[in-house]
Amino acid sequence: MELEFTGEVWHWRGPAPYHFVSVPEGDCGALEMAAPLVSYGWGMIPVGVRLGSTVWATSLWPKDGGYVVPLKDLVRRAEDVEVGDVVTLRLTIDV
After folding, report:
1. Positive or negative, the Cα torsion across 69, 33, 65, 2?
2. Domain containing 65: what range?
3. How far is CA 69 from CA 33, 36, 45, 88, in A?
4. Is the Cα dihedral 81, 84, 85, 89 positive or negative?
5. Are 93 and 9 in contact (CB under 8 A)?
6. What is the pLDDT of residues 31-80, one digit of tens each?
7. Which of 10, 29, 33 is nearest to 21 (CA)?
């Protein structure tokens, strides 16, 4: 399964600060259907992600009835991405 979408980078300042891009609501239904087949717990969905020329493995995090894609600092630096930037992500989920 592959999804491609565009979203704004945002920062969560919690006890473990991180940057994310929210998966659009319209794509979350397909992810919810795939989750029981691939999730390893807590609703996390393992994915391959492409942002620009950078490809990495991570997991989607469930949040507020949807999912968010965590962006590692290493990836953000490689692609020169800051909070508020709008980026296009391609997700690959092995179902």
Report:
1. positive
2. 2-92
3. 17, 18, 10, 12
4. positive
5. no
6. 888 888 898 878 899 999 999 999 999 999 999 999 999 999 999 999 99
7. 10
Q: How many domains are there within the chain?
A: 1
Structure tokens at 71: 């962006």
Q: How far apart are alpha carbons 81 and 95 in whole angstroms? A: 30
11 phi and psi, to 5 degrees?
-115, 130
Q: Which amino acid is at 28?
A: C
- The residue to which tokens 């979408």 are assigned: 5
For residue 28, the surrounding DSSP H or E stretch is helix 25-38
CATH code of 33's domain = 2.40.30.100
Q: Give the DSSP letter of residue 50.
A: E
Find where tokens 């492409």 sit. 50
Query: pTM to 2 decimals?
Result: 0.90
Please answer whether residues 5 and 85 qualify as being in contact, where contact means their C-beta atoms are separated by less than 8 angstroms.
no
